[in-house]
Specification:
Length: about 300
Amino acid sequence: MTENRRWGVIYCPKRIALCPKKHLERIQRAFDKEGIAYDFVQSENSGSVDRLFKMMINNGYKTIVIIGGDSALNDAINCLMQTDSTLRDTISLGIIPNGVMNDFAHFWNMREGDYEKTISGLKKHRVRRIDLGCIRYKNKHDESCRRYFANCINIGLIAVIMNLRRQTRHLLGLRSLSFLFSFILLIFQRMDYKMHLKINSDEIKRRIMTICIGSCTGYGQTPNAVPYNGELDVTLVKNPGITQLLEGIYLFLRGKILNHHNVAPYRTRKVEVISTENALVGIDGRLMHTPKGGFTITVEQEVINFLIPD
């Protein structure tokens, strides 16, 4: 067992990073400069974060920091939520943005590459209890499952965009180029889906382009959501014409998606998704391949300790 003051650090390297060794050395120098006692491990692939995080917990680390993006953070919170609440309450989780998408870190004004500032802020060990969203669903084996998210769930076209963006970012590297290329590829994608939902007192049966259910900003789709008010923000985008779609894309890139007249916003604690006509589902920027049939999305209030910067 490790001494409680030592941090466990899990480094998730980006596949598109230039000179990853130099990035790693900068991060380690920033930790050493702050005089933080830490033990460092590197994930081999996207599936190893869960295993390494469990190892950290089992070895008694009380502060565990992920150097990665939204997907790596999602793996960490799901591993943490598998532990007993008594143990979970003794563990603080931190993030240093280093992924393809870092939306949750951006909410807290943490930026990629600013390792010294981020680590200096984390050293102060300011802890905030945060909410998590939770999707409950059945997999292809008809088993009941659940998955937690810090940022959002996307259903429909934006899940496609997020997947395209992830793939094109790996190929093209630049954020703006990946966005542009993703939207070009949308020409070949299905644009709307017949869905059946229940949100608050509303029962919705209609063709819908995309839905974002956010505990946080949802990649700009739920810009007013915060991960500490015990509620989820929902942005529902109806099926627009091509001119309206272009206007929607423009507003989305400007962070003003809620101003579009084809957008219906909600605030709720529960969303029942009865059917989606096989629309893709993304969770924290990564596609889910397992939901079968309908599913339910709820919020769990103040369930993990999260390290926030100044």
